[in-house]
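This part of the workshop introduces the protein records we will be handling. A record pairs a protein's sequence with a compact description of its fold. Comparing a sequence with its tokens is the quickest way to learn the format. The record below serves as our worked example for the rest of this section:
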Amino acid sequence: MNFKKTTHLVLLWILICVLIGFLSGSASAFFLVSLEWVTQYREHTNWLIWFLPIGGLLIGLVYHYYGASVVKGNNLLLEEYETPQKTVPLKMVPLVLIGTLITHLFGGSAGREGTAVQMGGAIADQFTALFKLKATDRKTLLILGISAGFASVFGTPLAGAVFALEVLYFSKVSFKSTILSFLVAFIAYYTVEFWKVEHTHYAIPIVPELNFQILFWVIFASALFGFAAMLFSRSTHLWTDLFSKTIKYPPLRPFIGGCILTLAVYFIGTTKYIGLGIPVIVDSFSNPNTAYDFLIKILFTGFTLGAGFKGGEVTPLFFVGATLGSALSPFIPLPIALLAGMGFVAVFSGATHTPIACTIMGMELFGIQGGLYIGIACLIAYFTSGSVGIYKAQIVKGAKSRLYQKMRRKELENF
């Protein structure tokens, strides 16, 4: 390859990264501002929860008649990466954006990463035809879209870049894709900064020195975080399968689910388990939560997404991990903020099979001083969370896959 051609390719991919990073970052910035607005409006207008069934019906109808090709969401991006077939339709961007805002406006329990990742992936994939790229280059584009979406919505560029690679288990990932993933993540991150959109800040002020006694408690808590991740993943899939089997007409699923969720919120008498739950997450770093907070969030989020509402799973995973860690603080001799921070990223690690990205994310969010604790928590949770994560299309390989295949073979032999 001559120098001129090499220079042309380098400049082309830098241009593509700038375009994807800026467009995805801008989309995430608009989404974050809009999400904050609908959340605040809902919090000051509690009667909107009674319109959740209508919002669900609207989402169901739109996706059934206009969005069938993109209804799989994040799983569609993973499927297209593994077995490329056709370009992800650009209509995924407005559909998931509007669907998520409706979900949060009327009180569904969901996250935001799924929306940002889907917008980033769909935007990135459009450059396949625009620049007449090869099929192998399309894989790179999908990595860039996932990286840009994740980095921009959470304000964690390093974790976003690694997450895009790790969620695909580094499958057929080239050195070029790796470098570009980091480049686009920072462009998307600084684009959100350019639009002056702020992210939530957390802190772990006290980090004790590690010894064998503390290590025991860290491993014990981390295993619990892994079990919580397993419960979350299986709960989401359970409700999805139940709704699809019992209600044949898809638009009715979020309508009926919305009716049940509305009544549930009314009878429990609190709105702390709906929406993102950011105030509860922040509070968990300083005040112990009740032992059932994380369980109710798992139930509400699994039910919301299983019924067909839109959003992501990651912020609810943060809620589950942080509140579980906080609830353990009266019994485990570790600082409450450290336990909440460990749970925050460890449950996410277990549910997405991405311990490296989650460790990096923890250090980006909480500081490098707790990196060892966070790394141990993410790794233990990764191995104790089972073989099924929140993304059905994700292919799990490596040590974890071999471990659970071996366990499965033993179960069949004993049976």
